[in-house]
Hints:
Layout: H1 21-25, H2 41-53, H3 59-68, E1 72-75, H4 83-89, H5 98-119, H6 129-151, H7 175-192, H8 205-218, H9 222-234, E2 263-267, H10 287-292, E3 308-311, H11 313-317, H12 324-329, E4 330-332, H13 333-340, E5 358-360, E6 382-386, H14 387-400, H15 405-418, H16 428-442, H17 449-455, H18 459-462, H19 478-484
Amino acid sequence: MKTYKIYLSLFITTLLVSCSDDFVQEEPPFQVTSGSFFQSETDFNNALIGAYDLTQATYVNVILGEIASDNTHAGGESATDVVGWQQVDRMEHTPINDNIDDVWDFNFAGVQRAAFIIENQDNIDFDGKAQIIAEARFLRAYFNFELVKWFGPIPIKPEGQFQLGEELSIPRSPVEEVYAFIEDDLQLAIADLAPQAPQVGRASKAAAQALLGKVFLYQDKFDLSAQQLQVVIDSGQFHLFGTQAGEDFLNLFEFSAENGPESVFEVQYSGDQGAGFECLQCSEGNVAVGFSGVRGYNGPVYESGFGFNLPTQETVDAFADNDLRKELSILDIEAWAADTGATFTIGNQDPVTGHTGFYNKKYLPRENDNLPDANLTHPNNYRAIRYADVLLMAAEAYNRGGINDDLARQYLNQVRQRAGLQPVNSSGADLLNNIYNDRRLELMGEGHRFFDLVRTDRASQFIDGFEAPKNNVFPIPLEEIQFSQGNWEQNLGY
């Protein structure tokens, strides 16, 4: 999918139009308003590209979500490198954490771009408009789901974009109302989305159904969750990569497997455009990949990176020796260097946030022909919703809802057998523990662990320094509280 940028007007609490201070000082090349735009099918298509474009900026949700969990250390050059990530790793983050602010900004920017399309849907008619509006609703739901996961109550505006000044009057809606809004967007999207996406990287009906199943699961609506996820399973559109002829499971996160049979929704990245630190969200590449690379690396297969997001020894030990996911997920740099002659350097050696000897192999930077700055433009796609995730969510819903342990076991065992493990025969609470354990191992490094622990009330048990209910959500950025002039209260404990 083509992913050039189209800059639309944004709420005060989201990204500025420009990508650098220099651009602010120049006369903008054009000004987009609802009166001058959305006059043709091309306008709607371009706006949709702009909305999808912000999914690329959610790389920060993935890497910071891992660092917040018990899966990884922050890493980096030192214990003060990207200090906001270091604070989250220690569970010492505050409302003035710039990196948490990024999560707020990028996702609200996505909400705004999707909402701009929706509020102008009646401007003109053309064949295919229903699909575009449905995709905009999917994207608004996708970004709002990220926001409610991270921040709890958030401002919502069903009728369209936020306007400057409305931060003084629109409240933060209760979580229940936010979820109802997300559900409504997804139900409307499902009605009009095509079974097969019009282009690679765009949302299909199954993508919206899977996301809705996940939204229901996060609310413990197990019957509804199981129903939606079962529809995706019964569609026959997907299978676990590596279970059919010619597929090697260990290649699941290689370029060759992108947008493959396991991909329900995948964020597209490209190495065709350079990037810089002054505007990381402007990169068409997956910034999290370069940040996760081995520091000072010189050797085969991989490119060097900044040494963040380092799997812990406890995480590595959680894998059984015969679990194929261990080789898929973890690079033991000492063993790799001994085998290949590769060299590397060690950065942060802080015992709480520093070097572990392991790297997140799923999103390590591979050798490729990306453009400078190479560390910021890696083309590795993010598998936002994988079929394995769908199977494990369905297993959890069937079990926790007391609906069908036989199906729960069946779906769990499909994932386990693909990983080379024996099936389980458990039921009830033991089966649930098996599902939780395999969910961690299957999705390690993909940004889900922290939120899985929070939604199942297990975070205090596993994450050092975690205090419930305070750390169940992150603080609202201080500047947003200030913009609202008291209309929005800070989250409890911050």
